[in-house]
Design goal:
This protein is mainly alpha-helical and 125 residues long. It has 6 helices and no strands. It has one domain. The protein is elongated, with a radius of gyration of 15 Å.
C-alpha cells in the first residue's frame, strides 16, 4: 500500500508539475533555474528508482535490458510510456535551463544514460 501510494504521488507530482509548466512559452519563461532543476531531479529519481526497484534490486539484468529496449523503441506499454514521459520532461527542462543560461553543472545526468551506465557496469561484474 505504501509503495503504491509513493509511486502514485511521484507520478502525480512529476506529471502534474510538468503539465502545468508546459502550457505556454510565457509560463516557461517564468520558471526559475531552481524550478527546472527540481523537475529534472524528480524525473531522474523517478526513472532510476523504477529500474532499481523493478530490476536491479532483484539482479534481473535481462529484464532491465529488455525494458530499456522497450523504452528506447517507445513501446506502448504503461511502463515505457511513463519512463519516456519522465525522460522527455527531463530533456525539455534541461534544455530550457541551458537556454536561460542556468548553471546545469549541478543537475543530475540524463536518467536513461544513468540506467544504461548502471546496467553496463553490473553486467561486467
Amino acid at each position: 500500500m505504501k509503495k503504491t501510494f509513493f509511486t502514485t504521488f511521484i507520478l502525480a507530482s512529476l506529471f502534474g508539475f510538468t503539465a502545468c509548466t508546459h502550457t505556454t512559452n510565457a509560463t516557461n519563461k517564468k520558471l526559475t533555474c531552481k524550478d527546472h532543476q527540481r523537475v529534472t531531479t524528480l524525473a531522474y529519481t523517478y526513472i532510476v528508482d523504477r529500474f532499481d526497484k523493478a530490476y536491479f534490486s532483484q539482479n534481473d539484468f535481462d529484464g532491465a535490458t529488455a525494458q530499456l529496449y522497450l523504452v528506447e523503441k517507445k513501446a506502448p506499454t504503461d511502463y515505457a510510456k511513463n519512463i519516456n514521459a519522465a525522460q522527455k520532461s527531463y530533456e525539455e527542462h534541461y534544455a530550457l535551463a541551458k537556454q536561460k543560461k542556468c548553471d546545469v553543472s549541478a543537475y543530475k545526468p540524463s536518467p536513461i544514460a544513468s540506467v544504461k551506465k548502471q546496467l553496463k557496469s553490473l553486467v561486467k561484474k
